[in-house]
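Sample entry (200 residues):
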Amino acid sequence: MANLIVVCGPQAVGKMTVAESLRDKLRYNMMMNHDSIEMSDKIFGFDTPAQREFNSLFRKNAFELAVKHNVDLIFTYVCAFDMKEDLAYLESLKNLFEQAGGHFFFVELKATLEERLFRNETPHRMERKASKKDVEWSRANLLQDAENHKLNTDEGEKCFENHIKIDNTHLEPDEVADRVIQKFGLVPNDKDEKEYRFGV
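Predicted structure, serialized as tokens:
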């Protein structure tokens, strides 16, 4: 039985660093949304039909293999809560893992726009996400999505039974991870480091 933790929130809110902390504390495997994006961009070019299809297949196969082989997984995702297809996608992931006997945990992060614009240009982000090295485009994309989409739930709104929302504007990633672990009563796996973070 595999568990899935989705770390969700707008661009540059800190999903990757929180997910990395959860990975190391829980010994879960991790797939960033940008793992499939960067790979498909590299092969098929930016935002081409082939890129979009490969990106979708990459993720679908990864989730199905995690369930098949009982691999606990962390996934980072930007959800537009005003778009039904985004919520339907998350619901499909929840169903996939729960129908196989696992659990689905939804971690929603929020931070001020000022803080997100600062984090958008941090060296760690640039290192891990090649597409973000074009800072001018990345900043414009961040601002455009913030203007056009609902990237966080409303106060008191809850999308899933296991849903925690954390304002991490002034929190370190380890602090956020500890809150998540405590909230859901998560227990670390017994895995060698090479089994969950090989080459990272």
